[in-house]
Amino acid sequence: MSNFNNKDQAITPKMAFICSMLYVVAADGEVDAQEIGNLLRVVGASNVDGNLVVGGENPELFKTCFTFVKKHSSDEFIDLVTTQNILSHKQKMFILANMLDSILSDRELKQHERQLVTVFQEKFGISNQEFKPVYEVILFKNNKTLF
After folding, report:
1. Tens-digit pLDDT profile for the chain (147 aa)?
2. Cα→Cα distances 119→23, 33, 128, Å
3. How many domains does the chain have?
4. Which of 19, 20, 52, 27 is nearest to 106 (CA)?
C-alpha cells in the first residue's frame, strides 16, 4: 500500500492527522456529540447554502480521508504513515494529543480508544515518559468535576 487512496495521491501530514482523528472517533463503535464537536474543532466546517460541510476550507480532503478510513484498518494506516516517514516528531505529538483530547472529551476512557492511542504512540516512537506531561494536561483540561 504505497499510496494513500489511489495511484495518484500520496498521503500528506494533514491527511495523516485527519485520518487519525477519524479512527479515534470511531474506535469504540459509538460517535457521541462531544467527539463530533472535537472533530469539527480540529478539521473545521463551513456553511454552504445553509448546510454544514465538514472539512472547513477543504471538504474534498476530508471526504478522501473518510473514504480511506472506511476501507482500511487503523493498523494498515499507521503502518503506511510510519513506513512513509512523513510526520515530524512535533506532528506525531500533535496527533497523539488531539487523539487523546478527543477520547477524553466525553469523560470516559474506553479500552478500544486507549488501545488505539497506545498503538499510535508506540508506532510513532513516543515514550510514556515523553507523553506523560501532555497526557496529564489533557486529563486536567477534561476534568469537569472541578466545577
Report:
1. 444 554 445 889 999 999 999 999 888 777 777 778 878 888 887 777 887 777 777 888 999 999 999 999 999 999 999 999 999 999 999 999 999 998 887 667 778 888 999 999 999 999 999 999 999 999 898 888 888
2. 12, 25, 12
3. 1
4. 27
Q: What angle do CA 42, 36, 19 make, to 5 degrees?
A: 55
Three cell numbers written together for 129: 515518559
Instruction: List the Cα angle 41/46/47 in 5-degree steps.
Output: 135
Task: Give the residue among 18, 45, 13 at the shortest CA–CA distance from 102.
Answer: 18
| Positive or negative: CA dihedral 127, 129, 133, 138 | positive
- pTM (two decimals): 0.85
**CATH, residue 117:** 1.10.3680
CA distance 98 to 115: 15
Q: Which set of grid coordinates corresponds to residue 140?
A: 486536567
Q: Quick check: is 35 in a domain?
A: yes
Amino acid sitting at position 124? F
